[in-house]
Design brief:
The protein is mainly α and 532 residues long. The chain has 17 helices and ten strands. The strands form five sheets. The chain has a two-stranded antiparallel ribbon. It has a two-stranded antiparallel sheet with strand order 3-9. A two-stranded antiparallel sheet has the order 4-5.
């Protein structure tokens, strides 16, 4: 049986029934007792669906990207519960073997976790596609299910390649720049594959997206946010084309999602329970922060009791598979008593607080926070500025697990606005950003300044992306691709560390991750990125 390149693990959990595909064999290729071969697993459309749901959806998880982005950029600063984990990463120390523990999870490396997990998923998709060739659907209904499985799998593969390109390609806008490794099917054990040009990777991505788009449809039911459909495909296409500089296609696909998904921006009202005389005021109560369900629609988007504007998210049950995102910031609960290891960066927190009527100052920040009014005093302990993260409050009061929001409608507005700036339509871009700000404002106080030139427009879009998409894995890539155009830089406050703070300069080579040492040492054809 063929296996993938050295860095990608092949043992795959296939379904809730614990079917196991074991391809980890010794040099003699001995078949162990009870071992299931691929020809025994891929025998029906039903089994194919088990593989998709258990092995592929179950492995898909961009939490390493979210955590790395938060720690490395200006989104976070150490909390008083920190034991010093990832301080080096917070101080921009990056090399192919940088250790990242990630809130008590299994140690990995910054680049290794992102590289390995995405290639694991790609490997499993490739195996599913290969196995599917031996299956013949027996009815029209089964044929439709079969087609949907293949389309979902290929869309997920495209997502993983885009994640890899985003972090490991030095310049996604250059089709001839070095991209990542294309894994063709299920390569032999000793395959040592080189990195491909961006354009070659893009051709594969577009092939997968076009295939999936022709089969999958939009659905705006509550449960459909957990299933790859056309909303996922077109949202991914919009993001991908924005990153690679094709703003016309980015605009086309973002507009398609806004027009045809059946979703609308989640509103900030009511700010208090119906009938409460404090509606629209800054008086907030425990009913807003209820774990299972709040009276506020935007809060319910984050506690997972409602879909809201979510295009696609990864389901995380209170107890179940998948990593807990809440424990990346807080040891056991999203309050000041939850031993916060990371808290909001001071300048980002100030943005939340200083926008009149903005719902995010409440939806993202726990009310148990204890901001230090003297945080600018150099004699104060920076760790005493306790700005507790509550964007992922847990699905129950006893758990810190929340769905991973992969695509939301607000991002499509941002993509559309950025594309309009690129086309010279500054007023249209302004109005799109204003629509998001209106949706997020419970006091009817949203304002967007006039966009007088492209640089100012980009800076305002980047500011709104920073606020709205905080701790969703965007900031690192946004700074990499947009900060210079916007005339801004990373924006840490001087108290965002226990040592003097610096900001990573624009165009630093560290805005591209190193190829993991596990890859380059085992595969001499995998060229390292500059600077490492």
């Amino acid at each position: 049986m063929k296996r993938i390149i050295n860095t990608v693990l092949i043992v795959a959990t296939l379904s809730s029934a614990s079917i196991m595909l074991n391809s980890c064999r010794d040099a003699l290729d001995i078949t162990q007792a009870g071992e299931l071969q691929e020809e025994e697993v891929y025998t029906s459309v039903s089994n194919l669906n088990d593989v998709l749901n258990g092995s592929i959806y179950g492995q898909l998880d961009p939490i390493d990207e979210i955590y790395f982005t938060g720690v490395f950029t200006d989104e976070l600063k150490p909390g008083f519960g920190s034991g010093g984990q990832e301080f080096e990463l917070h101080r921009y120390f990056l090399d192919p073997a940088t250790q990242v523990v990630g809130g008590g999870t299994v140690s990995t490396t910054t680049s290794d976790g992102i590289w390995l997990n995405n290639y694991r998923v790609i490997n499993r998709v490739n195996r599913l596609l290969e196995g599917a060739k031996s299956i013949t659907p027996t009815s029209t209904v089964e044929q439709g299910t079969y087609n949907s499985i293949i389309a979902q799998a290929r869309a997920i593969r495209a997502f993983c390649y885009i994640q890899l390109e985003s972090y490991f390609s030095t310049n996604m806008k250059d089709p001839n720049a070095l991209g990542v490794i294309i894994v063709p099917g299920v390569p032999a054990t000793d395959a040592k594959l080189p990195r491909a040009k961006n354009q070659d990777v893009y051709d594969l991505i577009n092939s997968d997206l076009d295939y999936a788009r022709a089969i999958l449809t939009y659905s705006n039911t509550a449960a459909s946010r957990y299933i790859v459909g056309r909303g996922f495909v077109n949202a991914l296409s919009a993001r991908f084309n924005l990153y690679r500089g094709n703003t016309a296609l980015a605009k086309q696909y973002a507009q398609d999602v806004i027009t045809n998904s059946g979703l609308s921006l989640t509103v900030a009202t009511p700010s208090q329970p119906t009938g409460d005389p404090a509606i629209g005021s800054a008086t907030w109560n425990t009913a807003f922060y209820a774990t299972a369900s709040s009276f506020n629609p935007y809060r319910n988007l984050w506690n997972d009791s409602a879909r809201g504007e979510i295009i696609f998210s990864l389901n995380r049950l209170p107890l179940g598979a998948g990593q807990s995102i809440g424990t990346r910031w807080n040891t056991n609960q999203s309050s000041i008593n939850g031993v916060p290891m990371w808290v909001w960066g001071r300048n980002l927190y100030n943005l939340f607080q200083n926008i009149p009527g903005d719902i995010r100052k409440y939806a993202y920040v726990d009310p148990s926070s204890e901001p230090n009014p003297n945080y600018q005093d150099p004699n104060e302990d920076p760790l005493d500025d306790a700005l507790i993260i509550d964007k992922y409050p847990g699905k129950t009061s006893a758990a810190t697990r929340n769905d991973i929001k992969v695509f939301r409608l607000s991002e499509m507005y941002f993509i559309l606005a950025e594309a309009e700036v690129a086309a010279g339509n500054l007023t249209v871009a302004h109005d799109l950003i204003q629509q998001v700000r209106v949706a997020r404002n419970y006091a009817n106080l949203a304002t967007t300044p006039l966009y007088t030139n492209a640089q100012f427009a980009y800076s305002d879009i980047l500011k709104e992306r920073r606020i709205e998409l905080a701790l969703e894995g965007h900031r690192y890539l946004d700074l990499k691709r947009l900060a210079t155009l916007a005339g801004v830089t990373m924006d840490r406050n001087e108290i965002d560390d226990t040592v003097p703070v610096t900001n990573l300069p624009n165009n630093s080579y560290k805005y591209t991750l190193p190829i993991p040492v596990k890859e380059t040492s085992a595969n001499p054809n995998a060229q390292q990125n500059p600077g490492y």
